Amino acid sequence: MKYFLLPLGCQMNQSDTERVKTILQGMGFKPTDNEDEATLLGIIACSVRQKGIDKVYSRIMKWNEMKDRKNCITFVSGCILPADRERFLKLFDLVFTMNDLPDLPDMIRQYGIVVPTNPQPNFEIEYQEIKRPLAPLFHKNDKINPSANMDRFWVIEPDHISEFEAFIPIQNGCNKFCTYCAVPYTRGREVSRKSEDILTELKELVQKDYKLITLLGQNVNSYGLDKKGEEINFAELLRRIGEYGNSVDKEFWVYFTSPHPRDMSDEVIEVISQYKCLAKQIHLPIQSGDNAMLDRMNRKHTIDDYRHIIHTIRRLIPEATIFTDIIVGFTGETEEEFENSRKAMEEFKYNMAYIAQYSVRPGAVASTWADDVPKATKKKRYHILTDELMKHSLVYNQGLVGKTLKVIVNGFDRNKSYLTGYTEGKIVIRFKSNDRSLIGKIVKVEVTSATPLSIEGNLVTE
User: What structural domains does the chain harbor?
Assistant: First the structure.
């Protein structure tokens, strides 16, 4: 018995997928990349962008056609808007939220698949005729809270895709309600995971020689705010991770994504500056460089607030790289508002920026507003900001030439005579080598050349 799993969207969905795999493999299913071989077909969906939902519809139409020639079960979970969930109930056999993942074995049993309580490696699952349940899992009037009882989900041990890179969810949901974003409606309200469990998972990963560990949440730096008096805050969580890093003879880098400027404290930046295992790279979404636009986006911070954070990072962690997210063409964006975004890109000199041409997110507040910036204008503004990014990232990367940097090797370049990796600041780098044993290790590379988004160098042998 085999399963096929399609994860869509962000790193959080990728992390969720690792826990779904654990449940399915615990039932005795084996993974396959061939949909025609699978008895169980699942999608970890993303309602945040229309393209993601379009992929879901395309795939389920194909799978439902497959049912004419084979018995199979389909399911969907992940980030799903209420309106999409109602439609999915008519297309998928199972629709459930991630906090209900522990119940998936019972849901599948409703369809006639018999699984052992404690499956053995060579156990053959008996397959019976698939039966439809008496009623769908969700009803139209159900009030679904995707963040309820997340401890049942987090306790599931993930089946990591990589042997050296791992994600640790520390928080789920969002309370910010940015007008362009649907996440509060797909993920629910902010819920923090127990710090004790986070630290235990991290220590286990380090002992298994994982080198890259990313703390995940929709708003990681609001960690603990929903449990004041019961939990530590984000700065203290980072401090305890840093202290552990100092106590072990293992090198690893800890990142986090995504923070919100509204909750980014000086204390967090101070802690990062003090500990070697806390990576000197910060992703700080700006979304717009104009205060009026930020107000329409309901970001609840100003450019001066944001500027203070950047100045604090530059002062306390001068070696840090800074990444951002920014939107062009949001509802009503004027030439002056866009120019302020360009000026922000020029001022803050990002190492990387994920620039998005605004598209309506169904379910978000702004989905009821006019999408009134022409596509041609969005595209033009996108290219202007991209050029701004390239200009400043090139200057930074050229400044690395001649320096020897630590690099985590993550695989082969398209040119198989080169290996690729990331610096601690997540700058893409390649160097000439075909030594597969270096993948997953931290090595030293002397930088010899630079482009706007990557660097190249020579491996330094000890």
Answer: 2-109 (3.40.50.12160), 162-269 (3.30.750.210), 280-398 (3.30.750.200), 404-460 (2.40.50.140)
